[in-house]
Amino acid sequence: MKVKVNEQYNFEVEVAENALKVNGAELQIDSRDLSASQKHIIYQHKSYNVEVVEREEDGKTVTVKVNGRLYQVGIEDQYDELLKKLGLDNSSANKVLEIKAPMPGLVLNVIVEEGQEVNKGDSLLVLEAMKMENIIKSPTAGILKKILVRKGDKVEKNEILLQFA
C-alpha cells in the first residue's frame, strides 16, 4: 500500500504477520499496545509514543501524534490504485469542469483571469440577480481554462460561465 505523510512524504509499505517493510527495507521495531489508540514503539534504539488522534470515516486518512507532533497520514491500497487506473476514483469522478449560472442575471464583475489557478471557495465572479449581488465561488481547486462571460453580460440560468482545465 502507499502511505503519504503530511501531503509530502510518500512511502510504499508492506505489512506481514511479524514484519513491516517500508520502501522494500524491513524495519526492526518493537511495539507494545498501551491502549486501543496508543502504542509505544522502539526503533533504532529510540523510543516513540504513538497515538491515533483522529480517523476519517473512510478510514483512508488518519491524524497521528508521535512524541507530541501531529502528522496527517493518507493510505492508498491496491483497490484505490485499481479505481484510479480505471478512472473511477473520487478525484476524477467529482471533478468540476464548468461553472453554470445558478439563475438569470447580469455579470457585475469577473474577479479571475483565464489560466489562473484557484482554490475551493475562491471568489470567481459577481452576478446580480433580482437586485441582489451573488458572489460565485469555486466549488473545486483547479486552473481556469476559459472565461465565457465579461462584465456587463446578461446570462440565463444554466449558461456556462467558466470552464476548468
UniProtKB/TrEMBL annotation:
Lipoyl-binding domain ranges (all copies): 96-165
Record's keyword terms, sorted: Biotin
Matches recorded under CDD domains: biotinyl_domain
InterPro entries to which the protein is assigned, alphabetical: Biotin_BS, Biotin_Carboxyl_Carrier/Decarb, Biotin_lipoyl, Single_hybrid_motif
Name of the protein: Biotin carboxyl carrier protein
